[in-house]
Amino acid sequence: MGDLGFLQCQPYMVYCDPRAWVAQLAQMEQLDFEVFVPGHGPLGTRADVALQREYITLLEELVTQSISDGLSVEETLQKTLPAPFDSWLHGSMGRWDGNVRSSYEHQGGESES
């Protein structure tokens, strides 16, 4: 899976196209494999690939809703995702911050510099 695979941990999404990544993961879920070898995280299953896809989708939805609600990027950073993703936030080298800020900017939110 290379850098498309961040299983059981937060992906690094700063330089990505989230929709394309989600589409790639959905295609991988259709492959006839039992074990997926990610570039990051432990070996995983089809269910782990689906969870990563869900993480990306939920993060994008969270940022979309925050922008719609008029929240700043700093206010958006105070939000979290539901289990099991909330546990992925710890020890992830600032990925939450980078992912939220990147999504916020890509979606046209006013970022504070």
What does this structure look like?
- This protein is mainly alpha-helical.
- It has one domain (2-106).
- The protein has helices at 18-29, 46-68, 73-77, 85-88, 95-106; strands spanning 2-6, 38-40.
- Strands 1-2 form a two-stranded parallel sheet.
- Strand 1 (2-6), helix 1 (18-29) and strand 2 (38-40) form a beta-alpha-beta unit.
- Helix 1 runs antiparallel to helix 2 (46-68) and helix 2 (46-68) packs across helix 5.
- The protein is globular, with a radius of gyration of 14 Å.
What would you say about this model in short?
The chain has 5 helices and 2 strands. By secondary structure, it is mainly alpha-helical. The chain has one domain (2-106).
SSE order and pairing:
Layout: E1 2-6, H1 18-29, E2 38-40, H2 46-68, H3 73-77, H4 85-88, H5 95-106
Helix pairs in contact: 1-2, 2-5
Key phrases:
single chain, 113 residues, mainly alpha, two-stranded parallel sheet, globular
